[in-house]
Amino acid sequence: MKTFRSFKIIIIAVFIIIFLIFLNLTPLGGSFKNLFYLASSPIQKWLWGAGGSTSEFFGAISEIENLKKENEELKRQNQELLAKNVSLEELKKENETLREVLNLGLKSEFKLKFAEVIGKEVAEDSLIINQGSKDNMAQGFPVITSQQVLVGRISEVYQNFSKVMLISSKKSSFDAQVFEKKAEGVIRGKGNLNLFFDLVPKNSEISPGDTVVSSALSRNFPEGLLVGKITEVKKSDLEPFQKAEINHFFDINSVENLFIITEF
Amino acid sequence: MKNIILLILVFYILILIQTSFLVHFNIFLGEFREFIPIFIIVVLINIFESRNKFLGIFSGILGGFFLDIFSGSFFGFYTVIFLGISLFIKFILKKYVQPVLRRA
Lengths: 264, 104
Hints:
The structure holds two protein chains of two kinds. Helix content of chain A is 37%, strand content 30%.
């Protein structure tokens, strides 16, 4: 009886090992994941929305004291931006006139594709979106929000779904620059939705509050996409470059829809 | 059989909650928060099930397999880790805890 039981356990173990090897070595592994995501996507979509609104609700309660200060700061910033906007409008008109005179076409905008977030991968900085190979998705396409905030790029494509590797992933690094200062560096992911700005030359003047955008040197992403704000600059005499902590603009709690840049 | 179906349903619901709902609550445990619900259930089943039963080991394999589906790792990564955890708990209970309980 005992021998029969051990035999049964061995058979089950062998079957599981063969099944796992089969899933890893054949394209059926991807189809298997795709099937699961397809079956789960309606529930996951609902849970994602519910999670976002619940966390926002509790976040608002815990931060009610800071909200007043933040509101005043935002009002001040809004006024500054309005003033900037007026001067930019004038510059835009001037620019358009000059383009017409020089007979230059406007720089072509990105070709975008809309996608909804289904979920996040376990223990990794990756999101699952509802666009796959049947929607002409391909590896490497940049992903942004409606405010042109850089989110990441497509790392894996299934038939109906794709995985977006966030810029905060440990595997992610790309060239970026400080807006209006031209201080170049490399944005590296730290994992768990954190980023830092590395390899910034010591002679470059960067300070907390500066906005970091993607740079033209980065071939993976278009130039000028918003990345985040510098929160702390770290300079050391022992290191040839300076580093900075970044508070990125992408907020996972409020994101439900994303845009994939299919051409830039 | 009823237990196994129930376990599959519980793990499936848990993994959906882990990958969509809990993502928004970045309060404690950092990236490990996404393992916690399934991990706790696997550990509890292994601790409290009676001797010579295999539901604990099965729960380890199943929980790990669901994590494999919703992770970027290769199939088998979490399955092996959770199977290892289940076997480790079984070993500790058999070798150190149950003899003490029998003596008492």
